[in-house]
Design brief:
heterodimer, A: 334 residues, alpha/beta, 6-stranded antiparallel sheet, 13 strands, globular, B: 263 residues, mainly beta, 10-stranded antiparallel β-barrel, 2 helices
Amino acid sequence: MKATSLAYPLVVVLTSVLCSCADILVPEGAPELNLQDFEAAWRFADEYYPFFTFKNVNWDSLRVAFEPRAACARGDELYPLLFALFVPLRDGHIEVQSEAGYPMVNYRPPRAGDARAFDPVLLRKYFPKPLSVVGENKIELGLVDEAVGYIRFSTFAKGDWVREVDEPLERLLHTLGLIVDVRNNTGGSGKTYGYILPRLIDRPVVETAYYWDGSVRSGTIQPAARHYTGKLVVLINGASFSAAEVFTELLRQLPSVTVVGDTSGGGGGDTELFVLPSGKKLRLPVKYFRRHDGEMIEWNGVIPDVVVEQSVTDILRQRDLQLEKAIVLARKGL
Amino acid sequence: MGPLHWKSWAAGVLLAVGGLASQASTKETHASFLARRGEIGVAAGGCHHAVRDELLSQEKYTGGAWWYAISWRARNGMPRAGLCLDVATGVVSNYGVSAQVLTGTLRLAWVYPVRQWRPFGRRTQFLLGPSTGLVLYSRVQRIARGGASFFDAYSAAALVLVGPSLAFHSQLTDHLRMEARSEVSLLAVGGKLIDLRESKSSLVRPLAPWQALFTLSEVNLLCPLWGPVNARAGYRLSLLRLSAWDYLLLAADTIYLGIVVAL
């Protein structure tokens, strides 16, 4: 046999060996528990998810449809399978998390595109002095003029950052009108807005939660000793979601509040985290809040008192129409 | 690029280079090549990634990628400096789920000849010196979007490192030269994307070798084509391991073909 005839098989073998080194160095993942994970996820939702009736979803039928696919799912195919399972619920609160806790969602609320029609840099041109930024860059505030203040909460994520609102808010208490901007605020924790709210209200407001088991629990939020007493204008848009919507509806109980902007995202649930057998996690709503008028926040969103639609085109034209309207309304009420 | 296609392609590259080496007898010899001051090179090839990034998943993802590199090296003077920039981009998958992976390295090494000898009459040289580098990694998952941000689920890491570089050069024939080298990180400053909602860990910090490791082993063959232009074909194996945050292990086999121009 000639040496050249050995060359091709030799090179193929050599190449195969070389190209397998990376595979050898990286070990395979843990044994799969996809079917167990699927069954646990279905069961947690079955027991705790509060919107099946409102959303008219036959949850049992979905188990029948998806269980055979779960039995065949390999590796990370569990993720798209769970996403598909939860699609009929159209719920932006539902997350499947990796073992490390990285959250993944596949439902984007239909009005979330409003996020592009808001520019936190553009709005600065409406202020004579630079805005103060506090609370780990999550709060910014300033004065439109001596009579109108502005405060923006970019998130209600949990954390101690919210305690930094006290001192700068003190500087706005003298104003006669205050714009509270929760546009593009995708929510967070009730504890966070629960810290802010008493500083903005001048009379008690009632927070009512509706649980998965049908129970209803109410609590009263009292004004803080030092609180705002002027007119409030709350700015929302389609990217205001979850806790930002509940916060807006709680403020709406006050007669001095006007909500301006565009209909919010429509996420009325409050979630808990469930651990699946493999260590992956599932975040599901277990209770929900309603609007001040009794309607569901879920899907419906918060509808502003004064609707001001804003598009990307407006932003490109260097106009924040919603903020402009809020400034007019804050001044008008003086 | 599936694994079978990848291996066939790589085998083809090796065969092509073997053919070039056998046909290069009338071209510039390595003696004249080595007499020049330095070289610049470009290379392209195929890369096979295997990755476990436990921020996103504990599953192993594998797949092919295209790999590109440009390099410069001083041949004379002490120390002999070398600079190399390479990028690989491709799709890795775990059964029916895939992700886009992008990796890149920028490395600078200074090596000194520490030993020369002539086994079988062939000039052979061993070089050693320090090296430094920047390693980048990003991965965008193609299954979902990340939490409240509405962005795609993604992960990223970066590493600035220093460590030793070893090189081994051998003149196999008048027209075929083999170069091998290996780099390993000893100290590094690294950063990795983490879930900031749940973790208070710092994104960037100094890392000990058991927390961050980058190794690169490479072997290539050079043969003259015409004038100062040489063909190069090689294989390299790189490994990135980060355990200071959610565990990341990324290995890549690369087979490449390139042109080297002597300066």
